[in-house]
Amino acid sequence: MPTLHAPWLITGASGMLGRELAALLTRRGIPVAALGRRSLDVTDAAATRAAIARHRPAVVVNCAAWTAVDAAETRPAEALRVNGDGPAHLAAACRGHGVRLLQLSTDYVFAGHAGRPYREDDPTGPQTVYGSTKLAGEQAVLGELPETGYVVRTAWLYGAGSPNFVSTMIRLAAGGDPVPVVDDQRGQPTWTADLAERLAALGGGALAGTAPAGIYHAVSSGETTWYALARETFRLSGADPGRVRPTTTRSLDRPAARPAFSVLGQERWREAGLGPMREWRAALAEAFPALRRAVDRSAA
Question: Is 158 an annotated catalytic residue?
């Protein structure tokens, strides 16, 4: 039986979440192969098979993704290769070696019109190319690996070292102009460090046989709007939250539709012996110093 310190492999490891997870596993003394796109392009089936055969991981976490939501609308084939074909290649390679696969997914697989948190087993209904391609990746993993495949849906990610909404608000808080932010989208801001902790716990549970395969929602508890998140970020920055002005999604006129309501329920964690992730304000307060340092470094 695999031990909890069996080797892991992370794809997309040069991204915000991949770096966070690789650093966490390294601190815990867990062997990890952290492969960015230059080391492994998951759209290449042969290269994917070779990487799994070479590294022999017990757990693979697929953080590789096409995340340019608007660009996907005009480049659907490219987005599908990364978000749909990539997970399919990984799932096929993992099946051949008995590897557990954790596939990162998104709130965009839902229609975004619910009046209550989406359950893990709720019907999907993506409204964008991005959401459709991520759903294709989910289906590929669960279809190929019914006993060892895990889909982890998350949303509204922020972390140090990469562009994200919270870091943008920290930068804008240092100015003096009003900042318009949409107030008609509801979701759950989620810190990459918290998500990395949860992925590590889920992978450990997968190895130990205590976490059933299937779909999990990994987001901070509670819910808010982008507008309220911006105001809280300004407050933590020592800036006037009144400079944040509410606006509407319609006013942004973006190519891809944004979910008006993408709050995700977290009931499935009980089956893995875990509770929901912590409340988003508590996570943001703890994350803030590192986020601010990263913004300051990028501006220097």
Answer: no
Task: Confirm if 20 and 159 have CB atoms less than 8 A apart.
Answer: yes
Looking at residue 143, its amino acid is: G
Contact 9, 48 (CB under 8 A): no
Q: Is the pLDDT of residue 2 over 50?
A: no
d(CA 207, CA 41) in angstroms, rounded, equals 26
How many domains are there within the chain?
A: 1
Strand partners, 246: 181
Structural domain of 99 = 8-159+190-221+263-278
Residues 228 and 166: their CA atoms lie apart, in Å, by 11
Q: Is the pTM of this model over 0.90?
A: yes
CATH number at residue 268: 3.40.50.720
pLDDT of residue 4: 54
Q: pLDDT tens-digit profile of 21-69?
A: 999 999 999 999 999 999 999 999 999 999 999 999 999 999 999 999 9
Output DSSP code: residue 111: -
Q: Is 227 among the domain residues?
A: no
The residue among 73, 216, 218 whose CA lies nearest residue 131 is 73
From the candidates 108, 118, 130, 150, give the one annotated as an active-site residue. Answer: 130
Q: Does the residue 251 lie in any domain?
A: no
Assigned domain for 29 exists: yes
